[in-house]
Amino acid sequence: MDSCDRRVRAYKNGKTMDECKIIAESLNPGFKQHIKKNDKILWSEILEKVDHDELIYKLTLKFLRRDGYDIGNYKIPEVKAFSS
């Protein structure tokens, strides 16, 4: 069975999956600060900050959800902290 070698697969700008994950993780503290200050961040703002790189955008949302944020949905395209 053939499988993809994720170490050598190039995505936008020639980055590997692991490099994209590192970039997404490094951007999240800034997004978290923005959410803390403004109560939310729009998906469009995140997409702009990741320079319209869809893989990094999706990984960023995934990591924000993992860290306990409500990433919204297509009707509410924003990320905010869960209300307690």
Observed structural traits:
mainly alpha, single chain, 50% helix, 84 residues, three-stranded antiparallel beta sheet, 3 strands
Strands, helices and their partners?
Elements: H1 17-38, E1 41-42, H2 43-49, H3 54-66, E2 69-70, E3 78-81
Radius of gyration: 14 Å
Strand line-up in the sheet with most strands: 1-3-2
Share of helix, binned: 40-55%
The average pLDDT value, as a whole number, equals 87
Number of helices: 3
What global shape is seen?
A: globular
Class computed from helices, strands and strand pairing: mainly alpha
Q: How many β-strand stretches? A: 3
Sheet with the most strands?
Answer: 3 strands, antiparallel
Order of helices and strands: HEHHEE
Distance between the termini: 47 Å
Content of β-strand? 5-15%
Which spans of ≥5 residues are poorly predicted at pLDDT below 50?
A: none
3D structure, described in words:
The protein has 84 residues and is mainly α. It is built from three helices and three strands. The protein has a three-stranded antiparallel beta sheet. Strand 2 and strand 3 form a beta hairpin. Helix 1 packs across helix 3. It is globular, with a radius of gyration of 14 Å.
Summarize the model shown.
This protein is mostly helical and 84 residues long.
